[in-house]
Pleckstrin homology domain
Amino acid sequence: MRVKELHPLCCITLESPHGINNKSPEEPVTTALTRSRSLPAKSLIGGSESETVAGILYKWTNFGKGWRSRWFLLRNGILSYSKIRRPENLNLLSPSDDVRLIGDISGERLSRMDSCSGRRKQQKTVGIVHLKVSSFRESKSDDRKFYIFTATKTLHLRTDSISDRAAWLQALASTKCIFPLRSLNGDFSFIPPKDLSISTERLKTRLHEEGMNENLVKECEQIMLSEFSEMHGQVKLLHEERTNLLDALRQLEAANLEVGASGKHEFSSLGRGKYSECSTTASSDGKQEFEDVSEEDEPSFHDTKEFFNEPNVGSESNLAISGHADIKRRTKLPDPAEKEKGVSLWSMIKDNVGKDLTRVCLPVYFNEPISSLQKCFEDLEYSYLLDRAYEYGKSGNGLLRALNVAAFAVSGYASTEGRHCKPFNPLLGETYEADFPEKGIRFFSEKVSHHPTVIACHCEGKGWKFWGDTNLRSKFWGRSIQVEPVGVLTLEFDDGEVFQWSKVTSTIYNIILGKLYCDHHGVMQIRGNRQYSCMLKFKEQSILERNPHQVNGFVEDVAGQKAATIFGKWDDSLYYVAGDGISKSKVSDPASNASLLWKRTKPPPNVTRYNLTSFATTLNELTPGLQEILPPTDSRLRPDQRHLENGEYEKANLEKQRLERRQRMVCHLNISLVHELAIVICKP
């Protein structure tokens, strides 16, 4: 490439035979980069010398794509980065750039890039970070990771080695030191128009030498002065804009320094809501990836942050950051305010046989003081199994990860033992959110459809995400109630491994006569997208069953070979042995070579007729300061459920009937509006 230079007459261009700084245009990129490792570059601001640094870093994008390599360039206090889709076609830097490279960029790779220079395509910058109003720190859990914080996003970056991370952090620190908090307006002197002295003598002399008459010379002189005056006006406007930007920049840095001096790091804001490995908020990188998507790079969306991968999530410091320090959760329900009255079962049974239970208006006598949204969260009582599975996966033990996922899928049924009451059916749009920093999880659920009843939930923990939707098909058969969950539950780990399964059928027996009991039966297939999957069979309890609630299954690899056998009870514990096959004697009496996967926690001492677990007792609790920040749709603010918890049964019944009546009215109104709108649209 040849550089065009302006002729003194401003209207003729000459082709310079040499490149910038007398560099040969044919000089390979590899040579320029190698020679420039120790050469400094000049800063455009303040005239201070700052080093231009470049290299390849791995940037966390989202759970679907994970860590992706990006080309980072640090120059003049600005860190920019762009994608590297095809390294052999990437034009990393122009030959005139003087930079210091960090990281292993082999000569062979650069040679391939230089050899394909005819097909190079300049990569579009995905995002920039102004270091003057940013901060950064190294990761405590990973020696190769560090973070860059701005007011709107957080970059999660990773290097190839510890030394590379140290070099990048040193370069970032050095760059920030070059731009102190000072007035920058004095660095650029602007000449007022009245002080301008424009000489046109060279132009007139040159035109006279060409034999032009005086009138034409004066006309050319006026054209030049007019063009110069217009350009000067534009430069003045740019100067004013630059001054305003520098003032705003000083104010931002002053605020940034005040925050740093007070000890409130930008990272502390993550504890207040957005968390988990991974990500920048709606960053420019994500927007650019959506705009510049290709067939092999599908768009994906995410809104999570790296929080739970830090060590000691439950420590006092982290709890204090997130505003949940020293939370004391209750251990029992409030004492009932009045004595509960029984109801006539016969009249209800006669009127509701064969009907969908979700459409039947039952008195609160049949309810427990939690909603179905909270019941979804109760399935995560033993979330430590997923934390353990995540750690096993990180260490490369995929079998133990699959076993712990299977134990988690079974553990959710343990709380149903002895629970004969029905949770409240949520109203349409009702929500429930829970933040349990002591467990390292955050949960959200919502009723998204009324008929059929569909509940969606999402939970994030230490290195994993869990979500699903459930449509409960329930039937009341007089002597029993059968519930068939329809939906898929998904568990995804940070490394991209995914497990999916559906729940089995649940039945409550002896509604009229005998002792009520609940049983779960069916086959649960836990499908993994990598090496292992699992099959579990919940054995249906018979009348003469001496060993009820049995669960048996196995974990198999992609080749169909059984890697481990699982056995136990869904209401007590679960064991496994390596390999294939286990005798029935071992099922009832676990052998010494069997390893414990999960064991149910002991029930609370303060047992009520609801038989809630210790964890379930806390789900509807309003801890101090919580009610002020909850949305009005939260289940904990539902009046009939709160009255039932307090033992105010008459008020609970009246409120329940009022809310259900209002919901039916709203549904009928919406249907009428839809019909009217359809008629209007269909009219010619």
In short: The CA atoms of residues 207 and 217 lie 7 Å apart. The mean pLDDT is 74.
